[in-house]
């Protein structure tokens, strides 16, 4: 694991975007794994800026996302599909059929998980996976206790995750109870991984990730088994690792 500590959220976003832009230039048909949430918003803004400057194109890029809430259709304002369109897809030249996100409204969710895995395989795997980290150490929606061997699956969200995500919903009870997420093994098959963390709420998860060995208690620690992981963390989140 390579650790990069930067000053603040903007510097984290800048460094992440710089690395993604570099990969996109080197490999225009990159398969990008994407994350939602507050963490990557600044990174996506910089990718849109780079596209507008003519520095990068998404015309041959394919993307897959980590997860989606069960029960939310792709056009639901709080769905991750909508989030991705608003933050990135609608502002760049990514073809409409070049992105995929688990369908949270699929009638048969097990079949949807299998479809998603098959799709990632057909793409030839993920070249670069972007990750945030939950305050409880989750990656994707792989909550503590998830086996490292897990593939794309349906999960019940923990109370702490539903609370952390309630800020995006009108009422706390509107936060879905379940999600479809890539499994830890699915994530670990990405050829390269970039994990971002910013702010004091991530301090404890980052402290544990830095100091503890791999254990399902801290899902992000599965990344310690991966040969090419870069963690970009700001000073507030890194307060306990220096
Ligand atoms: C999002 C995802 C989650 C988030 C994590 C951090 O697709 O899979 O693991 O990365 O919950 O969320 P934020 O960035 O909102 O703090």
Order of helices and strands: EHEHEEHEHEEHEHEHE
Quaternary state of the chains = single chain
Choose one word for the global shape: globular
End-to-end separation: 16 Å
Q: Round the mean pLDDT to the nearest integer and report it.
A: 97
Q: Into which percentage range does the β-strand content fall?
A: 15-25%
What is the topology, as strand order, of the major beta sheet? 1-10-9-6-2-3-5
Counted beta strands: 10
Number of helices: 7
Which compounds are bound in this model? Answer: fructose -6-phosphate
Helix content: 25-40%
Structural class: alpha/beta
Enumerate the spans where pLDDT stays under 50 for 5 or more consecutive residues.
none
Largest sheet properties: 7 strands, parallel
Radius of gyration: 17 Å
Report on this model:
There is one protein chain. The chain has 242 residues and is an alpha/beta fold. It has seven helices and ten strands. The protein has helices at residues 9-26, 41-52, 80-87, 109-122, 159-165, 184-188, 203-211; strands spanning 2-6, 31-34, 62-65, 67-69, 99-100, 128-131, 153-156, 178-181, 192-197, 229-234. A seven-stranded parallel sheet has the order 1-10-9-6-2-3-5, with helices on one face. β2 (31-34), α2 and β3 form a beta-alpha-beta unit. The longest helix has 18 residues, at 9-26. It is globular and about 40 Å long. The mean pLDDT is 97. It binds fructose -6-phosphate. The site of fructose -6-phosphate has 14 residues, from loops.
């Amino acid at each position: 694991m390579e650790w990069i500590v930067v000053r603040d959220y903007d510097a984290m976003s800048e460094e992440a975007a710089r690395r993604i832009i570099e990969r996109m230039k080197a490999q225009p048909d990159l398969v990008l794994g994407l994350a939602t949430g507050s963490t990557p918003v600044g990174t996506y803004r910089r990718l849109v800026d780079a596209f507008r400057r003519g520095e990068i194109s998404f015309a041959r890029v394919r993307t897959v996302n980590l997860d989606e809430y069960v029960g939310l259709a792709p056009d639901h304002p709080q769905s991750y599909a909508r989030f991705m369109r608003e933050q990135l897809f609608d502002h760049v030249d990514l073809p409409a059929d070049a992105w995929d996100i688990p369908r949270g409204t699929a009638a048969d969710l097990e079949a949807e998980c299998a479809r998603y895995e098959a799709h990632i395989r057909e793409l030839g795997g993920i070249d670069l996976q972007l990750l945030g980290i939950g305050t409880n150490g989750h990656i994707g929606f792989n909550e503590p206790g998830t086996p490292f061997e897990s593939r794309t699956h349906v999960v019940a969200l923990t109370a702490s995750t539903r609370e952390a995500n309630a800020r995006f919903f009108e009422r706390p009870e509107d936060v879905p109870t379940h999600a479809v997420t890539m499994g830890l093994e699915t994530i670990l098959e990405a050829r390269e991984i970039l994990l971002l963390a910013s702010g004091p709420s991530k301090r404890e998860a980052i402290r544990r990730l830095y100091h503890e060995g791999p254990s399902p208690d801290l899902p992000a620690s599965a990344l310690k088994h991966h040969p090419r992981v870069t963690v970009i963390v700001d000073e507030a989140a890194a307060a306990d690792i220096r």
